[in-house]
Amino acid sequence: MAFNFNWSPLTADAEFYSRARDLLTKALNKSPKPPIIVDDILVSEFNLGTVPPDLEILEIGDLAEDRFRGIFKMTYSGDAYLTLKTRVQANPLNTYLFSKPEFTSPQPLAAASGLTIPLSITLSDIKLSAFIILVFSKQKGLTLVFRNDPLESLKVSSTFDSIQFVRDYLQRTIEQQLRNLMMDELPAIIHRLSLQLWCPDQANKGVETPKEETDEEGVNPLSSPPLDPVDANGNVLDPSAISEISLNGGGETQSLFSQKNLLRLAALTDSHRTLSLFTPGIRDVVFRAWSGCADRADVATPTVSSPNRVRTNSHAGVTGTTYTFSDTGSTLHGSISSRPSFASVNASTGLGVGSNVRSRPGRKKKNRVVNLRKTKSEAVTPDNQSEAGTLTPASVNIPLSEPLFDNSIPEEDELQDDPFTGDHFHPQTLMNDMGENSLTLEELTSALKDLKMLADATANSRKATPEKGSPRETPSAKAQSSPDLLDQDWVMKMASEIARRVYDEKRSQQRGKWDESEDAPPPAYEASPQSPLSR
Amino acid sequence: MREFMDYVHSAFYEATGWRRDNSYAALNATTDALLNFSTPRGLRLTLSALASPNFATSYQLGSVGVVDGSISYLFSSVPLRVLLTPQSENVPLPDLLRSYRPLTPVARRDDPSLRRPDDTDKTNESLLYGRLYLPRSQLEALLVRRLSPAFQAQFSAVSGQHLRNGGTALGLLQYDVGRYALEGLASTDGGLLGFRGVYNFGGDLSSKKHTQQSTTSPAENGSGNGDKERIYGRFSTGGEIYYGTLNKSGGISIGARFATLPDHKGTPLSATLTLNPLMGNIAANYAVMAGKDCSLATRMEFNIFSYESSWAVGMELWRKPFARSRSFNAKLEWRLDEPEKPTEKKMAHKKVDKEEAENDEKEYAGVVKARLDQNLRLGVLWEGRVKSLLFSLGSGIDLKMMNKPFRTLGLEVQFSS
Hints:
Chain B: Component of the ER-mitochondria encounter structure (ERMES) or MDM complex, composed of MMM1, MDM10, MDM12 and MDM34. Associates with the mitochondrial outer membrane sorting assembly machinery SAM(core) complex. Chain B: It comes from Hypocrea virens (strain Gv29-8 / FGSC 10586). The complex is a heterodimer. By secondary structure, chain A is an alpha+beta fold. The model of chain A is unreliable at 205-227, 244-254, 292-365, 375-439, 461-481 and 512-535 (pLDDT under 50). In chain A, 44% of the residues lie in helices and 14% in strands. Chain A has a domain at 7-198: Bactericidal permeability-increasing protein, domain 1 (Super Roll), CATH 3.15.10. In chain A, helix 10 (307-319) packs across helix 14 and helix 12 (340-349) packs across helix 13. By secondary structure, chain B is mainly beta. The model of chain B is unreliable at 210-226 and 343-348 (pLDDT under 50). Chain B is globular and about 75 Å long. Chain B has helices spanning 4-16, 29-35, 93-97, 208-216, 328-332, 342-347, 349-362; strands at 42-52, 55-64, 66-76, 126-133, 138-146, 151-159, 167-176, 180-187, 192-201, 233-244, 249-260, 269-276, 281-288, 294-303, 309-319, 366-373, 377-386, 389-398, 406-416. Chain B folds into 2 domains: 4-321 and 363-416, Porin (Beta Barrel), CATH 2.40.160.10; 322-362, no CATH class. The A-B interface holds A 90-93, 96, 100-101, 103-117 and B 24-25, 27-28, 138, 140, 142, 156-158, 160, 163, 168-170, 185, 187, 189-190, 192, 194, 196, 240-242, 244, 247, 249-253, 255, 274-276, 278-281, 283, 301, 303, 305-306, 308.
């Protein structure tokens, strides 16, 4: 199979550059500018160059005449350039007085008189390297999301190149701005352009980017240490100690979390086990849902994590290339399916629901999974599947207002001797896992953010209720919102895929060889069959 | 419109014998008032009172889309009632609204022999002022303290949540001996330190003779010499320098002004030239009182580095009330009011002189101010009095956007007692 990407016809369109310039100018002037910039930022020159980016297809999730989904790896080191023009205020006292209360102003007579200098900045030698998630459908246009920070390097040349300090400052500031542009603005711009191109009737519909989603993104506690870090004894940690801990990612990680959150988590687990009506609201948490209970024995141990188990969780993803994860787990939950939070949790965990929705009768969908990677040699046991499906971390945006019920009581009885049996959500183990996978998680949360944007962008014309992922509850509603669901499910699936992929990459770097990891089954797999619950 | 509290504030300076305009920062005060006056936005009501000779309050309610307001209190250790007409019914409008202000004689603290008899320095007096903006919860505070005849300290602070670090404070130390005045300031915002000074010469400061003449009788000056056209004014020159210790930035400027003294018989004028050598900015301001009811001002700016230039013109026009209605008696008798008898006036000329001037000022009904700059932005302001209410109606107009020219529109109403 081959794809033919035409780079030059894109630029041959006479209006393309003027339109792109307009869009870029609008995007650059949208956010409030610092007082040092006294004029609009104008994109005066923009050229995509002649060298196309290199695209490597990693996976194609869906392929038909009218739609396409896939993940690419893109590297670009071409001759595209961009020139911006604006005017800056050169008098520092003038910008100092800006937005200061007049009451305490020193009221200089003429020392604050302005000197505006025209400034032109040229960005060239742009080097990009990114994982791209591309979704195209005739109805919804093209959506493109960067999985990671795409910008590798960039050359900034400006009017003030002779002044070292100014040059460095501009280089730094512009790189930062460009990263924001790539991650936030560019997907929206491309989406809008594609709508104009393929479905002009939808172009003027609401294509506003879901900004509010990005604002309330989950904070990864490991990428940004807490404000009041204490160690196990309650002593305040200094920043160096924090970085050391988060780098080591060892068993001490949980001490980074504030006592308050731990208490909340404890209350949550208590409410799982009891009939307590009180459930504490925990915002922005990384949540793991179990629909099977294969790993119960592992999780049940309350002690500080052993490396084995941590690896179990991560390796589980390796096997799960083909997800045939059935809906058995969720049908067992029929009694609690009226709980919206559970349903959406399950939906965002993703795989089971996704396959369920896709295979529903009524609308026939072409769904081909093209797996471009090596198939796994190991037999995929149901245990591993469920593990792969359920252990994939996914950050869930909704508050955990409802506990997850145990789905089978006999299992509960079997493990009665352990007091922590019922805990689906054990803080310590969760945090240990997070410590081990801190980088993965960090990347994953950003990926999820992007994917959420994508999902919202495709479904923005509809009213998105927070609990739209409860398909089992109302079949009619499911039929209505199925395209959204499909997209969201796919998005969530992609998120878990990416998490796996990132981990793969990391591991292959660590261990040198790609295949090595697959030859030797991780110790976790030996551990999980020992679980008395293996089906 | 000039705020009531500012009016009270200047009355405090008058009472303590401090010359507010003998400062480098006030070098451009006249042209600034003519060219940079603020036009009101939205509807604003102010209710003010000098509750006791030492205590003033002011409440403000405004609406620019959302309703906001402020409460302010002022305490002065000097009784102010003598120097201030708080009633908006009786306050002379030129006192409150006139932009072109003639120079005030400096207080010669360096040479007691040259002091004017009405110069009274009250030391150890202080003024406290606080203002709370309500929905925003922004608090302003000001403390002025006269330390010695030549020293005065000012401390002002603003606290607000939207500000960086929660607020800023500015300390200002002023030293004024008449011939020269120095100021040092420090601000918490960026650790800004500043120093500025002004030096006066010429005119009333040039010789003892002039000073004595002017103290004896202002009316006789000039006319005694017979040279009416000879320009009689004061030169002031100075400079300022600022340095932000935290952000490592600074600013510098020098300036000079020539302004005629009130005793000058010709047209009162004020000309200022400022230069910012770091930024290459030259600004020339010129204000003239073209007639008794009209003042004009221009400003030209030029930047020798960027060749950017700008200009602005402004004017102020005082308006007498429309045709005075006849008195009730006159109407009954089917005749016009009798004109005032000039003979009487001549008889008591010297005595009534001052009162007459006040009456003259009182008969103004309002003032129209306008300004225009190089971006064709026009500012128009009409201030006056209706019954006992002072009003100020203004608008900012952008002549470049003719389809939607009114940028701002506002009305301020003020009542004080």
